């Protein structure tokens, strides 16, 4: 039935039960910050936000001792053959007929022919504990691919399209690789969500030598009459009376409170052949009623002669029901919250002699920009849009200043007072001037810069109204010396209104940078054992941006809204009421 979902615990974690904005596809789907930026630049195309639900049938089995563990990667095909990744589904273990829960967000633009490409992979067992976003695709077994335009899907009456999988070169294969079904639905724009806690009693025991390992799967019935799964709880081992962790469902997932939902309880099996314990059909309204009346609902199962349903002893209870309002990134920004950007530039000797053409800091008399200047200019367009006063604290690190000492956090403008410069032009001027007054040295220490940014963010947090969120941009050639000290500083700063964007320039090995960007699902741990409250780092290699693999706007803002929202929610900070005047901009 395709209900076994891979994750950090071998298919036993929940899927689709988090907060609204946490639906990270790991690619170029809808992003509030990106959309807001483009709209403000005058791009007013007619568009609709869609979610793609994916399922497959009769997939080719790439495994020998078990079945394939499939995952889909969705791409948008751009001009000149460039493809942009839109997102990835979760991995489903041991299943040739999967129904994926993870949706793919895509913006439908009526006036543009939008080519989509779907790649189906069999994920190797050794990678099952790695989040799909961090998987290297060339290490996985390719099953097949399919192409279509987005308009082909949305113009179908059922808004569903079945595509036959082809080989990697796009040609039909002599073997049956399977079929992929794509269903599109318009995204509901709503802040409403419900948080619930489920528990069951007297579930049937489906195991012989132990007890049932139950999990709940919830699916929404769609207009065409079929259903699409929207979430799954974690698996509780050996328990006929399980209590699951709280699950949060947004109206984007369940539609309206009256919409019928199919709630199924399964006994988990690692081979993918999960056994149905029982099911029921309830709406969110029905679940709310169960909570209010403190009663349970019986599961049913098809009787052996299929003539009627058998009512089971097993019951579902809703221990907690709470309606909550989930605010978006734009809700905060439009109500008066500000992003304050800070910039730090690497002046270590690993960049090369700035007077030599092969140096990353070389200033070309012809006006051609060096790697740092390109990064400042390309990043700057996005940065200054979100910083209302355009006053940027700007620092350098790893250089020997005019005092003769090596500094790991000096004012880029050379001032002994304030570090702020005005606009991107101010950063460029301060940077050029610093190259004439600062000697490249080392080592590369991020700790002092991060601590300085954290100090500013901490001051903002202690103010009466925490309306400022800080973003530190570090431009570096990627050779980090104080890795553990940097991790310690990041863990300490993870509880502050701060995100850190690291832009790598040049062709160095950026492995150490990727360690700091906790996209592998493991939060950073400090030397004293403290775990980071949240992921606050994003690493972007400029070479990927300049090669056209990703757009600069998408790359810079991909994770920022989620990082911003995770902080605001952790502190229970809400957008300013609309009748409040916007506070003045100052640092």
TrEMBL record:
Keywords: Calcium, Cell membrane, Lipoprotein, Membrane, Metal-binding, Plant defense, Repeat. Residues 28-163, 174-301 form the C2 domain. The keyword Transport does not apply. It is found in: Cell membrane. One of its GO terms (molecular function) is calcium-dependent phospholipid binding. It comes from the Eukaryota. The keyword Ribonucleoprotein does not apply. It is a lipid-anchor. GO terms for cellular component: plasma membrane. One of its GO terms (biological process) is defense response. PANTHER family: COPINE, PROTEIN BONZAI 3. Belongs to the copine family. This is C2 domain-containing protein. It comes from Lupinus luteus (European yellow lupine).
